[in-house]
Design a protein that fits this description.
Pfam family, one: HTH_18
GO molecular function: DNA-binding transcription factor activity; kinase activity; sequence-specific DNA binding
Oligomer: single chain
Shape: elongated
Strand content: 5-15%
Helix content: 40-55%
Protein name: Two-component system sensor histidine kinase/response regulator, hybrid, putative
Order of helices and strands: EEEHHEEHHHHHHH
Keywords: DNA-binding, Kinase, Transcription, Transcription regulation, Transferase
Largest sheet: 5 strands, mixed
Number of helices: 9
Distance between the termini: 61 Å
Structural class: alpha+beta
Strand order of the largest sheet: 2-3-1-4-5
Number of domains: 2
Radius of gyration: 24 Å
């Protein structure tokens, strides 16, 4: 293969992410390395540089890029190596449509991967190991709750309707995936989202948070919040 894409990430480990690219009859794959792996001591990186026919100048380019990433906190850099030409740093300013498509495809896949790695909002109450497929579904439910709860008070029955399931089906799936009741799941998401809002420092009153998370009365919200976290929500506003 004469074309190689090298993706360097500052911290996030994404070696298992497999993103094929296709242009006409050509198929390419990104080669992923964290900054810590960019070393002659790393067997996989050493093999990549051999396959891609890296020169000392190419290696120096990668070294400089790594230093800049650490200095500026840049999370991702994509490099391109074609045959005997020098390694090129790609950016969204490159005019080649294939480069733009390649970077776009990678970033889309990376966002999906990172999303899958994020813990569930309700993680603290989960009592069973959550399988990958169930995790995606629960994350979708949490997004549905976050999107709707600021407009209306959500019940388990309403959540079931939004999930295109009967109440019994929703209950069965949530209990199977998380080991808790749908009511407890819904309440936990509400309270965790409220806690995040309070911690953000962008809210002005407990009533604002309560209303934004589907609670009709601030007093009810405050009571449930203190029971769950051992601290009154008003303490976050001091």
């Amino acid at each position: 293969m004469s074309e190689h894409f090298l993706v360097i990430t500052l911290h996030t480990q994404i070696i298992d992410l497999d993103v094929p690219l296709r242009e006409g009859n050509k198929s390419q794959r990104f080669n992923y390395f964290t900054l810590d792996e960019i070393s002659s001591q790393n067997m996989r990186f050493r093999e990549f540089t051999r396959t891609a026919s890296f020169t000392n100048i190419d290696l120096e380019t990668v070294k400089i890029i790594g230093t800049e990433m650490e200095k500026n906190g840049q999370l991702i850099v994509v490099l391109y190596k074609y045959k005997s030409r020098l390694t090129k740093v790609l950016s969204l300013q490159d005019g080649n449509p294939f480069f733009l498509g390649a970077i776009g495809n990678f970033l889309q896949a990376l966002n999906l991967y990172l999303k899958q790695r994020q813990p569930l909002v309700c993680q603290a109450i989960v009592t069973v190991p959550v399988k990958g497929r169930d995790c995606k579904w629960i994350q979708h439910l949490e997004e549905v709750i976050a999107d709707h709860i600021c407009h209306e008070s959500l019940s388990v029955e309403t959540l079931a309707t939004l999930a295109c399931l009967s109440t019994r089906q929703l209950s069965r799936r949530i209990r199977s995936a998380l080991g808790v009741s749908p009511r407890k799941f819904l309440r936990e998401v509400q309270l965790q989202l409220a806690k995040r809002a309070l911690e953000s420092g962008e809210v002005e009153s407990v009533f604002q948070v309560a209303l934004g998370q589907g609670f009709e009365y601030a007093s009810t919200f405050s009571k449930l919040f203190k029971q769950r976290f051992g601290k009154c929500p008003s303490k976050y506003l001091c």
